[in-house]
Amino acid sequence: MPEAPQNSEQLTDYNLAEKNQKTLQFIEDVTANADEVQKTVLAEILSQNANVEYLQRHGLNGHTDRESFKKLMPVIKYEDIQPDINRIANGDTSPILCSSAISEFLTSSGTSGGERKLMPTIEEELERRSLLYSLLMPVMSQFVPGLEKGKGMYFLFIKSEAKTPGGLLARPVLTSYYKSSHFKERPYDPYTNYTSPNETILCSDSYQSMYSQLLCGLCQNKEVLRVGAVFASGFIRAIRFLEKHWALLCKDIRTGTLNPQITDPSVREAVMKILKPDPNLADFIEGVCSKNIWQGIITKLWPNTKYVDVIVTGTMSQYIPTLDYYSNDLPLVCTMYASSECYFGVNLDPLCKPSEVSYTLIPSMCYYEFLPVQRNNGVTDSLPAPKSLSEKEQQELVDLVDVKLGQEYELIVTTYSGLYRYRVGDVLRVAGFKNKVPQCNFICRKNVVLSIDSDKTDEVELQNAMKNAVNHLVPFDATVTEYTSYADTSTIPGHYVLFWELNLKGSTPIPPSVFEDCSLAIEESFNSVYRQGRVSDKSIGPLEIKIVEPGTFDKLMDYAISLGASINQYKTPRCVKFAPVLELLNSRIVSSYFSPKCPKWVPGHKQWNKPELNEV
Ligand code: AMP
């Protein structure tokens, strides 16, 4: 297998160029020898784990070849290995899925039974993740030279973590990465030179973390050459924060003293190393922000910014207009495609349009297989939940180098940390090839109808939430005859909107508080990622119910039919995105109601928390 690029210590201009070259050569090599690399990856995974219970259960018996693997191992989804995962979570340290010790669980934003999925991981995976990160800037430097001469202003955050009953940590993959020595103790590298000191990123209080990161970003505004966050939604929240708090930030910059609300001693110490009284800079920022015109704010306050580094593929594409507005159309760059299960790919043409982004899957990360899918281009762009595959379908799985241009596939991976033929749930389209390796557009996540931030709400969850909500209408002899939903990102943070058409049989008018209770009941029914977004991350705003005039959904059907939908097969879409449909719905609003408070949420899984804790 081609050798991964190594980290070198002191980087001069010359050896930076050499290091970049080595990295690009690594990409050349792994993509050119993709099939051999994949074969080696599979053999390594299977031989390292030959003794694990899961492989023995399926009779693999030490075989490490593709044929035996494909013949004997089933294609699975999370629920198939949940009993094994629960055993690990409860403290069983025997080799169940992986022979290496499980170091922690990564909590995916994908959920099962309303709770985050738990992905077991092992120490060495951190190296693989670091490797993928190390590919990004050498690729970028081919398109935007000179990035080593300045800094990146990235808004990076950690999320809460919990312990499983067996004592393993459970936390999101990025929290795990930022807290690891790979991030905290990274050797000096001009490409990981950020305006945010580590302490500000590692602060668990979201206000203190955001405030101090913005303050440090403003203090070093001239040095900033690129800005970003992981997802577009996070970056927009940071700009929104600036809109609200610029006066306070300016005061700190003018006086060189730090807002007393920043109480974390390590954050204070780190910020004070950067913050110096700078009345000129304060005047400049105040001059810009006090105009209250936020268009192009990025280029105004950080004038040397070359691009905005955020993921805007998949559901995040809904934020492109807002980002364009704030950045005066700077390039939006999506650099990588990754998940809690494994990190997958990099964008080798980072300045391309967001709609054309494709990710080159790096063959040394895991063993990839692809299940062909046929998508009927529905209103929601989503697919039904994955069902178990028949024997025949399992045989249809295609290897990395055998995928066809233009075809859509569901991604299936076998990882070093113990997932075998695991359905990630993402649908990709092959848009081209880098040597032997497909470059894939991210199409959608299976079965997701609504998403604002990292939340992913599916149709079944929405349906169940609706059932719980409409109970509140029973005393008024009212029913919801039709409904649909929409992820409204025109507010910051964005929020879910439900359009309801009612059938009112009773004569008592329904007070607003009842609809507010309905909104809250829906939020209470959603999965823990949604509720965490509302409560802890504040990345999702209160859910809104909009009551529409009687007959609105008939009009919606008429409209769909006028566009060619079959009258016999017409079903109300449970989520709408198409602008004319939204216009139609919004033109017939009778009243609207917001959820009056946050739903309940506590860190960790429901079953790990004592009942009293759930009541908090
Ligand atoms: P998580 O398991 O919470 O880390 O979320 C991983 C999921 O986020 C992936 O399976 C994708 O559905 C989505 N995702 C990650 N990277 C991208 C990307 N570059 N574009 C679109 N969706 C992405």
Automatic annotation (TrEMBL):
<comment type="similarity">
    <text>Belongs to the IAA-amido conjugating enzyme family.</text>
</comment>
<dbReference type="Pfam" id="PF23571">
    <property type="entry name" value="GH3_M"/>
</dbReference>
<feature type="domain" description="GH3 C-terminal">
    <location>
        <begin position="461"/>
        <end position="578"/>
    </location>
</feature>
<keyword id="KW-0436">Ligase</keyword>
<dbReference type="GO" id="GO:0005737">
    <property type="term" value="C:cytoplasm"/>
</dbReference>
<dbReference type="InterPro" id="IPR004993">
    <property type="entry name" value="GH3"/>
</dbReference>
<dbReference type="InterPro" id="IPR055378">
    <property type="entry name" value="GH3_C"/>
</dbReference>
<dbReference type="Pfam" id="PF03321">
    <property type="entry name" value="GH3"/>
</dbReference>
<dbReference type="Pfam" id="PF23572">
    <property type="entry name" value="GH3_C"/>
</dbReference>
<dbReference type="InterPro" id="IPR055377">
    <property type="entry name" value="GH3_M"/>
</dbReference>
<dbReference type="GO" id="GO:0010279">
    <property type="term" value="F:indole-3-acetic acid amido synthetase activity"/>
</dbReference>
<protein>
    <submittedName>
        <fullName>Indole-3-acetic acid-amido synthetase GH3.6</fullName>
    </submittedName>
</protein>
<feature type="domain" description="GH3 middle">
    <location>
        <begin position="359"/>
        <end position="445"/>
    </location>
</feature>
